[in-house]
Write a structure and sequence with these properties.
The protein has 323 residues and is of the alpha+beta class. The chain has helices at 12-20, 34-41, 75-80, 82-87, 89-96, 101-106, 109-114, 120-123, 164-169, 187-190, 269-275, 282-292, 304-322; strands at 5-8, 27-30, 49-52, 60-63, 66-70, 173-178, 181-186, 209-215, 221-227, 238-247, 250-259, 266-267. Helix content is 31%, strand content 21%. The strands form 3 sheets. A 5-stranded antiparallel sheet has the order 4-5-8-6-7. It has a 4-stranded antiparallel sheet with strand order 9-10-11-12. The chain binds flavin-adenine dinucleotide. Flavin-adenine dinucleotide binds next to strand 2, helix 2, helix 6, helix 7 and strand 8.
């Protein structure tokens, strides 16, 4: 790992002051450090300074009928939060499934959302892939069993954050702060596809940080479902989160978001249209799952993900119907 200087910011103001001094990439924020230190050890990023932001807001509080979650909240603390558990079951299911207890005790909500993709070509310093300034995506002709089934490249990563998927399903926003002040961004507009931003994954400007996740009041029913390789602690192969506003037993409006299938969390509006105005039955859930995956395009080694993602959507919908 390249040597670096370390700044331990004790609050948001100090963190922003430290980050404001640096050129893009020269200084990076570190929360739990689990993802960042791995990237540094593998020479994928080599900041000259690391600013610890683990002392940013670590509280979860009521706000505007929903919740305001500090970026420095540990995933384990989110899982244990009684009000969050009651209001946002899809988020809690996703959080409970992140890694292992040790990982959830160190990993923060902000770090989880901002973690970099797990693509093994991106993470391996031997491969100068598109995302690192190279000329090709090695997944196209290489080992692509965990890569995207949506998005058409040119880089075929899948988005890694389990928490971002339900945050978008709930219509959440991110508060971000930087040298030019603070702003709020719709979580659904926060992540960018590779053709919009090849070297990063979000709309964050240089030296901005995520300070809070803002969740509006949820629909009456919500759930999430993930499919993993065995019962391992690894990232999911496919995930789905569903949030429904109900009128009696009929769905008024639906949000369906898929994870691990595209370079960003992937909203399935075709599935949402299937659900709107319906009473949920197994047949409707199957139809919605089919609609969600209708536009998927497999690479040479990941056709299996289409069926798995369908299953995730269908089971998330069926879980909602039992909620
Ligand atoms: C074995 C294993 C299994 C895992 N399984 C899962 C899983 O199933 N699902 C899942 O979602 N995750 C999974 N993770 C990822 C883990 O949850 C993340 O690595 C962790 O949440 C990162 O959090 P952190 O606080 O350590 O972030 P850090 O490592 O500190 O930061 C991660 C990145 O985000 C940036 N960053 C951090 N905080 C902010 C902020 N507030 N604003 C702007 N940028 C920021 C950093 O600069 C860095 O680039 C797994 C990790 C491991 C090791």
């Amino acid at each position: 790992m390249k040597a670096f200087a370390y700044v331990n910011a004790t609050n948001e103001k100090e963190a922003l002051a430290a980050l404001a001094k640096a050129e893009r990439g020269r200084m990076l924020p570190m929360a739990g450090g689990m993802d960042l230190l791995g990237l540094m050890k593998d020479y994928i990023v080599s900041p000259e300074r690391v600013v610890s932001i683990r002392n940013l807001d670590q509280t979860i509080a009521s706000a505007d009928g929903g919740l305001r979650i500090g970026a420095a909240v540990k995933i384990a603390d989110l899982v244990e939060h009684a009000q969050a558990r009651k209001m946002y079951p899809a988020l809690i299911t996703a959080a409970e499934d992140v890694g292992t207890p040790q990982i959830r005790n160190v990993g923060t909500v902000g770090g989880n959302i901002m973690q970099r993709p797990r693509c093994w070509y991106f993470r391996n310093e031997e491969f100068n892939c598109l995302k690192k300034g190279g000329s090709r995506c090695f997944a196209v002709e290489g080992e692509n069993q965990y890569h995207a089934i949506f998005g058409d490249g040119p880089c075929h990563i899948v988005h890694p954050s389990s928490l971002a998927v339900p945050v978008i399903a709930y219509g959440g926003r991110f508060r971000v702060a930087g040298p030019n002040g603070a702003r709020e961004i719709d979580a659904g507009q926060f992540f960018q596809m590779p053709d919009q931003n090849l070297y990063g994954e979000t709309v964050l400007q240089p030296n901005e940080i995520v300070t809070h996740v803002l969740l509006p009041p949820p629909g009456q029913r919500s759930a999430a479902y993930e499919v993993r390789f065995k019962q391992s602690h690894d990232w999911p192969l496919a995930a789905a989160a569903v949030n429904l506003v109900m009128s009696g037993s009929t769905v008024k409006t639906a949000r369906v978001v898929l994870g691990a299938v595209a370079p960003t969390p992937w909203r399935a509006q075709a599935a949402e249209r299937v659900l709107a105005g319906k009473v949920i039955t197994e047949a409707i859930a199957t139809e919605a799952a089919g609609a969600a995956l209708a536009g998927a395009r497999a690479m040479s080694g990941n056709a299996y993900k289409i069926q798995i993602a369908k299953t995730a959507v269908k089971r998330a919908i069926m879980a909602v119907s039992r909620a």
